């Protein structure tokens, strides 16, 4: 194997605003330092961000409020190490350490959002999370399969919903109402959101709704209006919690939550001009889950048991268009539903005065998939046909058990800590599809192992050095294994012998604080195994169907990913702070003849620098102003697949940079107003791999209030 490339060591951004270092031997004040943000994604339990041994990007409640992002993917535009590709205006597929789509697990409040019908490559499903109904987004950069199982091969993106307020310590009823709005000029977009909560004793309830109406997006420069880019969306969320305040169940909590998202008439136009092809997507997702958080004091154990049900729906209408690009001619409608029942059990046990911590548990998710395909000449009724993308009645199971041990063999009174960790996961999957047409029944399954080992040194909040070896994997989804039919680019046939993709990652992380400056360094190298690749095949003995080549998926690709993520922040004084981050990723795939080829969809060098001024409070008014630049370099290193991708210009994607201004103010602690002027120089640019140009000059007004 000829993938002996040297790993690169990197810097990774921490939160821009920092406090002065604490006196020797004392911990700093958590309330004054955003580095004390509690994160839960990397360990399935709370830990301060500054002491985490993994690379984590956090978009917290304050950032969400100030930025007023249109979508959850847009909320990650400024997150370190996250590159967001957009096939269409309603899309947004994060690229984390060179991996994209189903290689990145999507989680909502600890429940898997990803299911077996999530297709390969870029996808729009993160947009099913309402940015106005969440309190933060956490991104684990790097493999997370030990704790999360399949799909957490390149990382985990977890959205934490807003929760009802805790009313235990308030006598009588207690509640409030919150509203928010967003208005943007580049797409004439408007968003309205409202939620209310009410508590009495240990019972708290919350309910909210959001509505979006967006027009066609105007790109920068001479791009102008991009047709079919507007869409509508609405979201609902409900949660009820009850916490026991005394007795044997003291501190136990029960939660029931429901989250709904609906996106309508989302157009995809990257093939419109060249191939006169237009796609229109409708997506809907319903997630209902119940959770018990419990504590068994004699066993020094905390636990969480969750039952969930998710109903996912996607409709994709594909049209061939007339020469005017407006007249619809023939069309194909694909509909897919996935009903998923899931169960998770997570346990944490502390021993030896918390010097030894055990995390263990298991999960099982069962997908029941329905599908149908219709065709029509425009103006005529849709007629069902037999060659749907999935055999109706397909099923898919993913399950696993894990154990993670973490201990502190050295912990001194002065603040020195040596921390060691190790973990193992046994994970399995099984899929089945009934016979369809001339194809017989398809059954496939697999059982795998995942390991993790880590060593870390901590000194107060000033030094954090960690070395981690982690494994990740992605089991083949139903599209890859059992899909039969026209994908738009080729004709796909099933493969019952398809196995998972695997990744082995070595990461070195170092963080430090020097006076008012925060620096960090991390380096990773990922070896990829058994990558799922398309290879020529036949259908009913034919190499072509309706003029399109026949392919199926097989394992066998080997590759290497490594990168650079750089960042630093400094508190200058007088309310001024400066922060920035930089990310570089490189990917290679070893071909059958031993030569190396670029991996597909690798982002270019990208980053951000931001100068911010936080104004001192005057009367009941405080605010901020920040000037920031977002930028990305050229990407001309293209794989063979990239060269045939309509979203990528011939020869690669040009570099770009934008100058942006953001300001905001808070009045009486209940009213907040924000304004962002994006792309002030009206640059015409595309994010690498995107099918749409990003906004030109875009004025965004956001407003929110709480009572």
Describe this protein's structure:
It is built from 6 helices and 39 strands. It is mainly β and 707 residues long. It is globular and about 75 Å long.
Describe the secondary structure blueprint for this structure.
Layout: E1 8-10, E2 38-39, E3 47-48, E4 55-59, H1 61-67, H2 72-75, E5 82-85, E6 93-96, E7 104-108, E8 111-112, E9 134-141, H3 145-148, E10 155-161, E11 173-184, E12 190-200, E13 203-214, E14 217-219, E15 224-226, E16 231-243, E17 253-268, H4 272-275, E18 277-296, E19 301-321, E20 328-351, E21 356-377, E22 383-385, E23 394-411, E24 416-433, E25 442-459, E26 463-474, H5 478-482, E27 485-486, E28 491-492, E29 501-514, E30 517-536, E31 544-545, E32 548-573, E33 576-590, E34 596-598, E35 606-614, E36 621-632, H6 640-643, E37 656-667, E38 671-678, E39 698-706
Parallel strand pairs: 7-10, 28-32
Antiparallel strand pairs: 1-30, 2-3, 4-9, 5-6, 7-8, 9-10, 11-12, 11-39, 12-13, 13-16, 14-15, 16-17, 17-18, 18-19, 19-20, 20-21, 21-22, 21-23, 23-24, 24-25, 25-26, 26-29, 27-28, 29-30, 30-32, 31-32, 32-33, 33-34, 33-35, 35-36, 36-37, 37-38, 38-39
């Amino acid at each position: 194997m000829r993938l002996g490339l040297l790993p690169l060591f990197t810097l990774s951004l921490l939160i821009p605003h920092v406090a002065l270092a604490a006196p020797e031997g004392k911990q700093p004040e958590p309330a004054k330092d955003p580095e004390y943000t509690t994160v839960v994604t990397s360990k399935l339990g709370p830990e301060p961000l500054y002491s985490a041994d993994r690379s984590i990007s956090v978009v917290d409640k304050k950032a969400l409020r100030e930025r007023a992002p249109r979508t959850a993917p847009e909320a990650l535009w400024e997150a370190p190490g996250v590159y967001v590709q957009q096939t269409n205006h309603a899309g947004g597929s994060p690229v984390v350490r060179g991996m994209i789509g189903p290689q990145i697990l999507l989680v909502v409040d600890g429940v898997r959002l990803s299911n077996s019908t999530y297709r390969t490559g870029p996808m729009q499903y993160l947009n099913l999370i309402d940015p106005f109904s969440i309190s933060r987004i956490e991104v684990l950069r790097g493999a997370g399969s030990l704790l999360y199982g399949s799909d957490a091969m390149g990382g985990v993106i977890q959205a934490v919903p807003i929760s009802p307020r805790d009313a235990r310590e308030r006598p009588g009823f207690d509640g409030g109402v919150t509203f928010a709005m967003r208005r943007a000029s580049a797409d004439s977009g408007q968003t309205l959101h409202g939620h209310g909560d009410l508590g009495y004793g240990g019972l708290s309830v919350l309910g909210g709704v959001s509505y979006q109406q967006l027009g066609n997006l105007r790109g920068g420069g001479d791009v102008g209006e991009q047709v079919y880019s507007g869409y509508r969306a609405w979201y609902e969320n409900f949660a009820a919690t009850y916490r026991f305040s005394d007795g044997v169940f003291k501190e136990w909590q029960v939660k029931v939550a429901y989250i709904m998202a609906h996106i309508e008439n989302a157009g995809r136009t990257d093939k419109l001009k060249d191939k006169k092809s237009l796609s229109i997507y409708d997506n809907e997702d319903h997630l209902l889950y119940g959770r018990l958080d419990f504590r068994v004091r004699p066993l020094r154990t905390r636990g969480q048991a969750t039952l969930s049900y998710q109903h996912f729906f996607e409709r994709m209408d594909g049209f061939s268009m007339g020469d005017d690009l407006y007249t619809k001619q023939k069309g194909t409608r694909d509909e897919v539903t996935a009903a998923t029942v899931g169960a998770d059990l997570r346990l944490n046990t502390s021993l030896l005065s918390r010097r030894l911590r055990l995390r263990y548990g298991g999960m099982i998710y069962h997908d029941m998939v329905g599908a149908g395909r219709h065709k029509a000449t425009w103006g005529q009724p849709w007629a069902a046909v037999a060659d749907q993308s999935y055999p109706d009645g397909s099923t898919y199971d993913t399950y696993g058990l894990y154990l993670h041990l973490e201990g502190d063999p050295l912990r001194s009174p002065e603040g020195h800590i040596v921390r060691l960790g190790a973990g193992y996961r046994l994970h399995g999957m099984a899929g089945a599809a009934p016979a369809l047409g001339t194809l017989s029944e398809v059954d496939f399954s697999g059982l795998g192992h995942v390991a993790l080992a880590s060593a870390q040194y901590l000194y107060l909040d000033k030094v954090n050095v960690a070395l981690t070896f982690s494994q990740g994997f992605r089991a083949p989804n139903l599209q890859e294994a059992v899909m039969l039919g026209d994908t738009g680019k080729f004709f796909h046939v099933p493969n019952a012998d398809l196995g998972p993709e695997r990744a082995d990652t070595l990461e070195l992380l170092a963080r430090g604080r020097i006076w008012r400056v925060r620096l960090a360094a991390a380096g990773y190298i990922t070896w990829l195994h058994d990558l799922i690749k398309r290879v020529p095949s036949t259908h009913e003995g034919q190499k072509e169907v309706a003029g399109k080549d026949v392919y199926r998926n097989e394992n066998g690709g080997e590759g290497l990913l490594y990168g650079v993520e750089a960042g630093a922040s400094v508190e200058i004084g007088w309310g001024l702070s400066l922060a920035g981050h930089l990310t570089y990723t490189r990917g290679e795939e070893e071909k059958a003849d031993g030569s190396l080829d670029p991996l597909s969809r690798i982002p270019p060098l990208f980053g951000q620098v931001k100068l911010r001024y936080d104004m001192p409070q005057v009367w009941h008014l405080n605010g901020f102003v920040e000037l920031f630049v977002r930028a990305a370099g050229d990407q001309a290193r293209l794989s063979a697949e990239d060269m045939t991708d309509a979203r990528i210009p011939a020869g690669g994607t040009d570099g770009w940079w934008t100058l942006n201004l953001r300001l905001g103010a808070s009045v009486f602690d209940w009213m907040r107003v924000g304004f962002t002027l994006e792309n002030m120089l009206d640059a015409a640019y595309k994010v690498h791999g995107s099918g749409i140009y990003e906004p030109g000059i875009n004025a965004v007004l956001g407003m929110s209030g709480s009572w």
